[in-house]
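If you are new to this repository, start here. Below is one unmodified record pulled from the training split, so you can see the exact layout before writing a loader.
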Amino acid sequence: MNPVIGLDVSKGQNQGQVFLDKGQPYGKSFSFLHTQEGLHYFLNLINDVTKLTGHSPTIILESTGHYQAAVVQFLEEHSIIFIVVNPLISNQAKKSSSLRKVKTDAVDAYQLCELYYKEEFEAYKQRGVHFLNLRHLTRQFESLTDMYVQAKLQFHAVLDQVFPEYNGVFGDLFSRISLLLLREFPTAESILAAGENTISERVACTCTSRSERWAKEKAELIMAAAMRNPFQKTAYPSHLISLELYISLILQYQEHLSNLQDQIDALAEEVEEYEIIQSIPGIGKKIAATILSEIGEIDRFTHAKKLVAYAGVDPSVYSSGKFTATANRITKRGSKRLRHALYLAVLCGLRRSCNKKLKEFYDKKREEGKPYRVAVIACVNKLLHWIYAVLTSKQPFLDLA
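And here is the target side for that same chain:
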């Protein structure tokens, strides 16, 4: 017998179905919560099926982001074999299994069991905690960066309605000294009331690493900006409240992002592959950390083509009868974060011919008549093959053209 248990995982609970063998469902569907009591109920059920069939059942479930984390950890702790299926595969199987349109958790669990007997799946390979921690941090950094960018845009919109001439006084509007000074003197009126000497003292005290002459020059620029400013009086006090809020948010985001980056660097430097992958021109520290965190252990992929498919940069194929499509887009079914990091790596590699081999390959594709985007995606594909080669061989990349 070849028993299997299909689990349809949702937030906080699961719906399951047991099959003793192909075409032999056992009992009705069952459910349990993601609690210690619920998980131990599931373990007892697994033991009952093992006693009944003489074989330990395989558990099959869909990948559902973080919802299955509690179940996966529990199964790993008890050394139970399980399979995590890509939802794209299971959805296609559900569509082809019946003409009827039925969608319930019990039906999904039943169909997962049927899918198990139709396809040959590999058991789930546990990812190392180190790579998972790195992935969580890089994704958190990306998410926080998006919020940081939005806060800066909203800050800019308010500043344009209060003190637009302030933009340009400092080389970086969002530097710490610029934001702290603006928080204390948010309007042209407050700047002119304070006077040049006071402003110069505040700049010098806030930025002690610069000279007094520099502070005085900045004070002169700020005073000139205040006199040019079209809003000599603030019409809406609510703008000042918003300005102070966005300044506080931006300063907090900067601090959090800096701390996250330090943690990412510290984690990445403990990984041997971190230095190896940076031997490819165009891949710096940030991009290297993102690529490694998304790929994980390279031995999860038996061929470079599987890594290409995981990144979603493999071309889609469409052929029917005598027709075969020639303009095929990439599948985009893999990790979008990995695709974005690879795209940036290619752009960096092509800039100023930093990566000679990549530039040579790009020029070849352009000479063949390929459009710019097609040539760049071809470079991404090529770069993935190089990454697979250096990570599996653990040898640095040689950029000899």
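Two things worth knowing about this chain: The first helix runs from residue 36 to 53. The CA atoms of residues 59 and 105 lie 16 Å apart.
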